[in-house]
Amino acid sequence: MDVLLWATVSSVGSPGVLFLLSVVFFAIAEEMERHVTPRKRERWRKASKLILLSVMISMVLSLTLKAVVMHPRPCAPCLWPYSADCNPYCLADYSFPSGHAAVAFAAAAAAYASIGRKKYAVLFVLPALVGLSRIFLGVHTVWDVLGGAALGLVSADVAELILDYKRRGKAIKQRHRR
Predict the structure, then answer these.
(1) 67-97 pLDDT, tens per residue?
(2) Distance (Å, rounded) from C-alpha 43 to C-alpha 111?
């Protein structure tokens, strides 16, 4: 595959882009009142909250782990415009875990958990391609991407636990008010 194609896949899976998309999805879900049934609207709201929280958790955990582990990247960043031996896709931060993979897998896992049907496992194709693009571009190792993928899956589970706990807490408070 062409380097430009891998760079495009990588940029689609960037934490900033996926965070922005999850915020837009959340806003759309909140504005769906007039167009769908209340049951569908509530399902979309829950899904959007789960995706947004999963993405946020994976971003925070990824940046925290990078600062703790401090594993160097397998590439040299271009710190000056005329650097000879550098990778233009390489960032000047740490490598483990891959933030792109973490956020992409967190969003996909949250969407999959919201849908709850096995036939939608295809949602994990894009995150897998994002991870492969990071390896192909030479900015991460396989272990960085696998670590990011695992972190993303854990982030979605943590987000689901947080939202379930919040829902249960509201239900308990409502029962005690009666």
Answers:
(1) 999 888 887 777 776 667 777 777 778 889 9
(2) 11
**Residue 101 contacts residue 118 (beta carbons within 8 Å):** no
| Tokens (6 digits) for 63 | 């940046």
Question: What's the burial of 105, exposed, middle or buried (CB within 10 Å: 0-12/13-18/19+)?
Answer: buried
| pTM score, whole prediction | 0.82
| 77 DSSP β-pair partners | 87
Domain hosting 12: range is 3-177
**Residue 131, class by beta-carbon neighbours within 10 Å (0-12 exposed, 13-18 middle, 19+ buried)?**
buried
Rounded to 5 degrees, φ, ψ at 77 are: -70, 155
| CATH assignment at residue 139 | 1.20.144
Q: Is the pLDDT of residue 106 over 80?
A: yes
**Number of independent structural domains in the chain:** 1
70 vs 150: CA distance, rounded Å:
18
97 phi/psi in degrees, rounded to 5: -90, 170
